[in-house]
Amino acid sequence: MERFGPGPVSAVPVAEFRPNEGSLTSTLRTLLFFTALMITLPVGLYFSSKAYVFEGSLGMSDRDSYFYAAIVAVVTVHVVLALFVYVAWNEGSRQWREGKQD
Q1: Which residue among 1, 17, 23, 57 is the one 20 to 30 A from 29 at the CA level?
Q2: pTM
């Protein structure tokens, strides 16, 4: 029976096996950033616009302020999604230009 010990395979640096690790890290960082924005921004803007803008400054009723605050939250979701698509598109085209596309 042959014994396999450390040979030429272990002499190869680990970084050579993962050439796109920086790209993966950048992609995950972007995804986590926009996930946090998608969770916090619409909810925060909903409650703050309802309490401070629509009920506080404009003096609207509860029913009207719910409706307009929901519109603000939906618009915020669309803006965050559009920004994510824009950033992801530019990141992908930058990687393609550099020749790092999977």
Answers
A1: 17
A2: 0.69
